[in-house]
Structures are given as structure tokens and as C-alpha cells.
Amino acid sequence: MKGSKSNPSLRAYKKVSHESEKALPDEGRWNPSSLYRFPTPPMPQFPSKEVLLQAHSCIFIIFTLLRLAQGQDTQAYGFRKKLKDEIADVFAQIDCFESTEESRMAQKEKEMCIGRKKFNMDPAKGIQYLIEHKLLTSGVQDIAQFLYKGDGLNKTAIGTYLGEKDPINLQVLQAFVDCHEFANLNLVQALRQFLWSFRLPGEAQKIDRMMEAFAARYCLCNPGVFRSTDTCYVLSFSVIMLNTGLHNPNVRDRPPFERLVSMNRGINNGSDLPEEQLRNLFDSIKSEPFSIPEDDGGDLTHTFFNPDREGWLLKLGGRVKTWKRRWFILTDNCLYYFEFTTDKEPRGIIPLENLSVQKVDDPKKPFCLELYNPSCRGQKIKACKTDGDGKVVEGKHESYRISAANAEERDQWIEAIRASITRVPFYDLLSARKKKIASKQ
């Protein structure tokens, strides 16, 4: 090989080979458009290198053969034929690879579709299927992102999965809530975002875990807005109630602003929340209801939709012991009373939280029932009323005595009030959380 340094063909091969190597992109990806002067669409990036390495070898052959073919070599015809065969072979292999890749992607998409359907029917089995088919990892963050994006997922199924108390589900719930960014949002805006991402289930323990996680996340994103996560927790439920009371067509009498105020007295570690803050939340909900995922009606908000009972009753005054005829409406675990059926604003609001109802005998009126607080006898019931000047003031009743027209009507009211008090798990959650706040004072 002594004469190799003077061999022009070999020098040409080495030079072209070196130049082509420098022109190649990282990881040996070969773009055949470098052979042509006219523009070509970009090649897809393939994960397999075998075909591309072979193409790399072929490009050396192509450049070498082109250079040799330009000379006066007697075998030019054979070189040109071999050149055509090599080019055809390279592109045939690439076409085959593209076809295989498209087929693989189509199969993955089919499996993903099956996984979504399985999830919507049985969330746990759906997640397991996706993990087994390597469409999802078993990592908490990966599962949470999958649920947060929600592509093709039923929001009832998302709520079902997030509500389970298995350790993995609890971790996914926390990661799912952390996907939400609540910074610089007021509570109503944050709830709009949160409640649209899944359907809140109806079981008390599930509701508690989800709203606890929401309250913690909101307070973390907005430090200083509330004194504790308990405050955020209680106010969040009040806002949900307000939304359904204001916008459900079956609710005849809309809750006034004072209702929101009375429900949330002392929840900020013993202090009241600023009235301006509550007014902003009230106005936001009044102007635009929550967009809550529609479902079969078994979710939390459905339980507040239908007024339970309404009718004329006599009520005994608190400070002045006179009986007055009032139009009563039982809804939202609350008893409203009006002077006339046409009034838009109630004369008084009696939250039924922590209260009990019983039949009583009264010497002046028959068919009476009584609302009282069994754990705080002798203390005023938290309620509010409108005085003669239209100003909202606290109620002065230690108990409420009400008279019906007959025994049957009295018993029906007692039954309806008891059902309203015990029916909704939400109220037990609120009561427990308010007691927790009170114990810290």
C-alpha cells in the first residue's frame, strides 16, 4: 500500500467521507435531503439507529461512486447501476421503518382509548390497564397529571378515584390538587377551577378529604388571606351553598347577602371575615354561577337544590312575646321566614346547624313545635333578622316556638326539618369544623 498516498480515488473517498461525517447531525441521524438542491420536508426522528447507521454507510458509498463516476473509469456504468440500487435499498428500508412506526403508534393510541374507557367504567382497573401497557407509569405525579389533563375522562370517574382512601389514592389526590395554581385568585375563582376539574362525590368522608386538600392548597398559594385552613374550608362550603341557592331554578327565594354573613360568623379563628371580602364573593357568585360538571344528580350540589317545605306558620317573638303570622320556607338546611309570600328578602333566617326540633305544649297556642340547641341550652341561637329600619341584626331567641294550623301539619314540618338537618353529610362536616375553630379560641 505504499502508493496509497498518491492514489487520487482514495484521497477523494477520504475527503468526501470526512466532510459527510461533519455534516451529519448528532446521534448519527441522516437526512437524505442533503443529497439534493430542491427543498424536502423534514424527516421524522426515529428512535432506532440500525437503519440510520446503514444509511450512513451508504452515503459514503454514494459520494465515492459519484466522484468515481465523474472520472474516466472504465467501470463507470457498473458504478452508476450499483449507485441506483444502493439508493433504492436505503429508501426502501426507511419507508419500511416509517410504516412500522406508524403501526406502533396506532396500536398505542388504540390501547390508550381502551384504557380511558376502562377508567370511566372502573377507575382503578383503568389505571392498572394503562400502567400494564406502559401508557402510564405507577408514579403518583404521572397519574395525577393524567387525571388533571382529563382528556377523554369522565369527571365522575375522576372524583371516584380521587375520593378513595387507599394510600396511593390519597397521594394522587394531593398531587392532583397541587396541579392547580390558585395564586392571586379569590376563593370563588379558585373554587370555579377546582370544581370543574372533577365531580365532587356525595360521601361525607370523601368530601372532607377533597375540600381539606383544596383549603390547604389555596392557603399555601395565598398566604395571609385566611388565618387558618379551617376558615377556608368552612367558607368554601358556604360559597357552594350560596351558588346553588342563587341559581337553582327550583329555589323560589334566593338567599340574601346576610345569609352568607350569618353562616360564617366567627370562623376566622373566632373573628368575623371582612364584610367587603364576603360581599365580593357574594357578588361574584350572583353574577356568574359555577360551571359544575353535569351528572346523574348524585353529587353534593344536588342535595341543596329542592326546597323541602313552605307554608304559613305562627312564630313567637323573641324579645316581645307576641305571635305573628309568617311565611316559612325550609331549604338549604335553613329556615327562612317572610312577612308576605311576595317578599324578595326574608324577615329572618334560622340556620338549622346544631339545632333539634320537638313537639311542645303551649298554653296559648296548639300544635306547636320548638327549635332548640340541645348542647347549648340557655344560649342564643345563631340567627339573624331584619328590624323595622331594614337593618340586619342578630336574633334574640334561645329557642324558636312555632305553631301550625293542625297536628298533621305540625308533624309534617317536624319530619321535614329533621330530614333537612340529618340528610346532608355536608352539614356534619361544617359543624365539626366550626367546633374545631371554636376550641382554638
Topology diagram in text:
Elements: H1 8-23, H2 50-69, H3 76-121, H4 123-132, H5 140-149, H6 155-163, H7 167-178, H8 187-196, H9 204-221, H10 229-247, H11 257-263, H12 275-287, E1 309-316, E2 323-331, E3 334-338, E4 348-351, E5 356-360, E6 368-372, E7 384-386, E8 392-394, E9 399-403, H13 407-423, H14 425-439
Antiparallel strand pairs: 1-2, 1-9, 2-3, 3-4, 4-7, 5-6, 6-9, 7-8
Membrane topology: Peripheral membrane protein
InterPro entries: PH-like_dom_sf, PH_domain, Sec7_C_sf, Sec7_dom, Sec7_dom_sf
Protein name: Cytohesin-4
CATH class call of the largest domain? Mainly Alpha
The main sheet comes to: 9 strands, antiparallel
Q: Give the tally of structural domains.
A: 3
Query: How far apart, in Å, are the first and last alpha carbons?
Result: 98 Å
SSE topology string: HHHHHHHHHHHHEEEEEEEEEHH
- Radius of gyration, taken over Cα atoms and rounded to an integer in Å: 37 Å
Helix share, percent: 40-55%
Q: How would you describe the shape?
A: elongated
Number of strand segments: 9
Spatial strand order of the main sheet: 5-6-9-1-2-3-4-7-8
CATH topology of the largest domain: Arf Nucleotide-binding Site Opener, domain 2
CATH architecture label name of the largest domain: Orthogonal Bundle
Strand content: 5-15%
Can you count the helices? 14
By helix and strand content, what is the structural category? Answer: alpha+beta
Name the CATH superfamily classification of the largest domain: Arf Nucleotide-binding Site Opener,domain 2
Low-confidence stretches: 1-14, 16-47, 296-306
Q: What number is the mean pLDDT?
A: 78
